[in-house]
Specification:
Layout (H helix, E strand, L loop, with lengths): L1 H4 L5 H9 L1 H14 L6 H19 L11 H6 L1 E3 L2 E3 L3
Antiparallel strand pairs: 1-2
Helix pairs in contact: 3-4
Length: 88
């Protein structure tokens, strides 16, 4: 069991990631995009990477399947019990 948990993030490290400028900036861009702001390519990539990281950190899953997610797949996802469910 110890071997399996070796290298996992601590709660302190998770808090540091979420407090970082990169994380906060991408979160701000995501909110702005939700309000109708058109994102440039670099901004879109930052938000995409933020979402992949956030999903992985919040659910404890590996990001692999989300790396190739498209906007169409995101928007076609359904919400069940308050959670976004996507087939990627």
């Amino acid at each position: 069991m110890v071997d399996e948990t070796e290298g996992l993030l601590t709660l302190q490290e998770l808090a540091q990631i979420k407090a970082s400028d990169v994380y906060q900036n991408a979160h701000r861009l995501l909110i702005e995009a939700g309000r109708g702001k058109d994102l440039g390519v670099k901004e879109f990539i930052n938000v995409r990477d933020f979402l992949i990281s956030k999903f992985s950190l919040d659910t404890g899953t590996r990001p692999g399947p989300l790396n190739n997610e498209t906007l169409e797949e995101y928007f076609s996802g359904k919400v069940e019990d308050g959670w976004k469910v996507m087939l990627v």
